[in-house]
Specification:
With about 450 residues, this protein is an alpha/beta fold. It has 14 helices and 14 strands.
Length: about 450
């Protein structure tokens, strides 16, 4: 294949602008890609790398249809000193010795990599090769700071991780390996991500977490279902250091106890009192009521972001009402991001003058309507000045324009800068509530700001 002068100049014009590359192309046969790229590289005025300003490469050969032996060598045409982030996703190890040499030579062709991701689906067929490769190449990147490995074998942890000055580590436990060791994370690791895949042994994984020790400020755990693994976390991670916690269920919601976020399960995380960001979006919060949310919020007063219960609840309606939102805002005054599900069919709690909230579900006990709240900023004594949008997920709603107005009035009162409501169900009704937030159709909203000035 020959590349004409005109096409080369057109390619060069755009090539200097590219900083991120995701390859190889899925819709083009590997042979065609190989011929085109080699033809570009052989043009008389060409020089490597073909994309001179490239800083990040994601090379995804994980699909069975991808011919690893033909596509992996193409990475060398884009290799250069500017690339600092390199991600390789392979379906299997290449058969050709020459192609394997390309993989082992990456520290030479990409000398300044600081972030390396390596995932191979059928590593179990050649675990020794996988271990040898990761240990070899990672050691040869002197500035490596972030490492993501799937799967991770024990020798990798013992021979490599403990000897590198990493700040970010992400591993997927080897589902077929039943032997682990006391896992002490280096003090340099601030971000740690652990994935426990669906075929792994639950008891073995519990033993692994039982030996885990570290002081990360950010921790992301991906697990198949709720289990005793979560209850061991506060004993293995430094409670005073953890600021960001994400626990993600890797299987779709099935409405079983294995997907429910219970109050007792939340209590096991209370020890992380220094949390700033908490993400439990993939859990079902079907059974949590307003009082439960209030007790949870009191344990994390420094939260700036809370995401909880964003899964489909088509099997039932959440027990919480908008009172849960009020409780969270009351005890977490620094919140800037809020994703929460509640039953919009339940009217807002009555307007009461509250100096200190203890029972957010006490709507039926106090019937003072709006009298006591007349002298307050609003009837609930709360005014979050940070939140401009919320996500209510699959929160259900009821019929009736009056209910929409009441809820809009309540939300606007406690979040005066709120303008956007995102939802996954009853979209039309939540859109009406959003329109009322920025309009003047509700008397109780008059006088509230409708646009945040920057």
């Amino acid at each position: 294949m020959l590349i004409g002068k005109k096409r080369w100049l057109c390619f060069r014009q755009y090539a200097v602008r590219v900083q991120f590359l995701h390859g190889p192309c899925r819709g083009i046969p590997p042979s065609v890609q190989f011929n085109v790229i080699t033809a570009l590289a052989q043009f008389p005025e060409a020089s490597l790398p073909l994309l001179p300003n490239l800083t990040e490469i994601v090379w995804d050969g994980s699909k069975p249809s991808t011919k690893v032996d033909m596509t992996v060598p193409l990475v060398e045409f884009f290799a250069g000193p500017r690339v600092t982030s390199l991600s390789l996703f392979l379906n299997d190890w290449p058969q050709s010795a020459a192609v394997r040499a390309v993989l082992f030579g990456l520290p030479n062709t990409f000398p300044n990599v600081t972030s390396f991701t390596f995932t191979i689906q059928w590593a179990c067929l050649q675990p020794d090769t996988t271990t040898c490769y990761i240990v070899d190449v990672a050691r040869r990147w002197p500035h490596l700071q972030a490492l993501q490995i799937s799967p991770c074998y024990r020798p990798i942890m013992t021979q490599l991780v403990s000897k590198l000055a990493l700040t970010t580590l992400s591993i997927t436990l080897d589902p077929f390996n039943t032997l682990w060791y006391d896992c002490k994370l280096p003090d340099s690791i601030h971000t740690f991500s652990l994935t426990i895949c669906m075929h792994s042994n639950g008891e073995r994984d519990l033993q692994f977490l039982g030996t885990l020790q570290g002081s990360p400020t950010r921790f992301h755990l991906r697990i198949l279902k709720v289990c005793n693994l979560l209850r061991t976390l506060p004993t293995r991670l430094d409670n005073t250091q953890l600021r960001i916690l994400t626990i993600e269920l890797t299987r779709p919601i099935d409405y079983s106890p294995s997907s429910l976020l219970t109050e007792s399960l939340a209590e096991s995380l209370y020890a992380f009192s220094a949390l700033r960001v908490l993400d439990l979006s993939s859990f079902s919060t079907l059974n949590l009521n307003d009082a439960a949310y209030a007790r949870m919020a009191t344990m994390w007063p420094e939260l700036t972001s809370l995401k909880v219960g964003m899964t489909d609840m088509c099997k039932g309606k959440p027990a919480a009402s908008v009172g849960a939102v009020i409780a969270v805002l009351r005890f977490c005054p620094h919140l800037q991001t809020l994703h929460i599900m509640f039953n919009g069919s339940i009217p807002p709690p009555p307007l009461v003058a509250v100096e200190e909230e203890e029972n957010v579900d006490a709507r039926g006990e106090d019937k003072k309507e709006g009298k006591a709240g007349a002298s307050q900023v609003n009837g609930w004594g709360i005014s979050n000045q940070h939140i401009t949008q919320i996500h209510v997920g699959y929160s259900p709603f009821c019929e009736g324009i009056d209910s929409l107005k009441d809820l809009a009035s309540c939300l606007k009162s406690v979040m005066p800068w709120l303008e956007i409501i995102r939802s996954k169900t009853d979209v039309a009704k939540w859109s009406m509530v959003q329109n009322l937030l920025v309009g003047h159709g509700v008397p109780s909203l008059r006088g509230q700001p409708t646009r945040r000035l920057s």
